[in-house]
Design a protein that fits this description.
With 382 residues, this protein is an alpha/beta fold. The protein contains 14 helices and 12 strands. Strand 1 and strand 2 form a beta hairpin. The protein is globular.
Length: 382
């Protein structure tokens, strides 16, 4: 009989927004330490700065949420840390230390010792991450046999337990299915089962519930939380859904144009957000309290071209508080107590309020839109 760490049908142990008791900052050595990580792609002689100087730590049992729009660098960040950027035009520099071991500079053969058993990833698109011509059973068992040295029978037994754990019906029959014979939600759950098969110490979850309906999303997030709680597993949760990170993370890093523009504990970030981009993301969340057919609030403008970033702040053209200094000097990521943000005019400051009033008087579109969102938010909270 195979000893499993999973408990199908067990009770949920999600934290529902409460900070993890196992994360108290007492561990002196982080499970993952990232310093000044940069990943650039050479495209037509221009450097596309997908990840540009990112630093953070993840401790045992901690969940870090990474949020931002599509194209902000979230997925490339996770792939760079794991060393799975396979493009020939990609170059990654900086430092990534896992349990004190430097990963940058290691060969793919050396990194294979870390993949699966030490760190794993739930990929965003199961249709492209699963091999379309290989049965699900083999995709679940091949790395179990490679890393855990299991027999074929033992690996198959554990694969069935894994499929049961992620709520896939008739798991024995599903082992013989090809990916195209399963629904999108079931394929995503298979990806989660594969990622957790070897019980990694660090999990990168890149939009792990993208293809699932709301009810199943809740179940999967609860199951990830349960597995993390049992193993004190570190997790980097990549998502665009602020509602997910609000209740499932200990810290949040907000990315824009390849950089972290704000980072703080989850409670601090939601109660005292300082960067205008974070505020704009928050204002973009649909509100159930609003009347039907209320127009959704969007961020004015588009993200910048990563191959030709503007001088100064990358968010300046979309920022409601923008001032001349924002277009001339790039703000540095500074830390105020435990709150880090990169902004000349942080939200809530007297300078930011004055800048917003000035921009509204000048008819700046994003400032007028921000005033409407602010007033609506104030009215809803009142």
């Amino acid at each position: 009989m195979v000893e499993a760490r999973w408990s199908p049908g067990g009770t949920s142990t999600c934290w529902e927004g409460v900070a993890l008791s196992s994360v108290d900052g007492s561990s002196s050595t982080p499970l993952l330490s990232v310093r000044n990580l940069r990943t650039h792609f050479d495209v037509g002689g221009h450097a596309v700065k997908a990840v540009d100087g990112v630093s953070f730590d993840v401790h045992e049992g901690m969940t870090l949420g990474v949020v931002g729009e599509s194209g902000s660098g979230k997925t490339v960040l996770s792939r760079s840390i794991m060393g799975i950027n396979t493009a020939s035009n990609a170059s990654t520099t900086g430092s990534v230390r896992y349990n004190g071991t430097e990963l940058i500079g290691k060969s793919k053969r050396e990194l294979r010792d870390f993949w699966g058993e030490e760190m794993a990833m739930v990929f965003q698109d199961p249709m492209t991450s699963l091999n379309p011509v290989v049965r699900i059973g083999r995709q679940l068992t091949e790395h179990l046999r490679a890393h855990k040295k299991m027999s074929k029978a033992a690996a198959t037994e554990l694969a069935i337990q894994l499929l049961t754990w992620v709520r896939i019906p008739e798991p024995e029959q599903r082992l013989s299915n090809y990916p195209h014979q399963m629904s999108g939600g079931m394929r995503q759950r298979v990806c989660i089962a594969i990622a957790l098969a070897c019980s990694p110490n660090l999990l990168f979850a890149d939009e792990p519930t993208t293809a699932l309906d709301v009810t199943v999303q809740h179940q999967i997030l609860n199951l990830l939380s349960q597995q993390q709680s049992e193993r004190k597993m570190g997790m980097v949760l990549v998502t665009h859904d602020l509602g997910v990170v609000a209740t499932r993370t200990d810290e949040i890093a907000v990315m824009y144009a390849g950089k972290i523009v704000e980072k703080a504990s989850t409670s601090t970030l939601f109660s005292d957000m300082r960067h205008p981009y974070t505020q704009s993301l928050f204002w973009s969340i649909p509100k159930t309290s609003e009347p039907k057919h209320t127009r959704l609030s969007a961020i004015v403008g588009r993200p910048p071209n990563l191959a030709a970033l503007p001088v100064g702040c990358s968010f300046a053209d979309r920022c409601p508080y923008v001032q001349p200094i924002c277009r001339e000097v790039e703000p540095e990521l500074t830390t105020d107590s435990t709150h880090s943000f990169a902004c000349h005019l942080p939200v809530g400051s007297a300078d930011a309020d004055a800048a917003l009033s000035s921009n509204i008087a000048q008819g700046l579109a994003q400032s007028e839109a921000a005033a409407i969102r602010r007033d609506a938010q104030t009215g809803a909270s009142a």
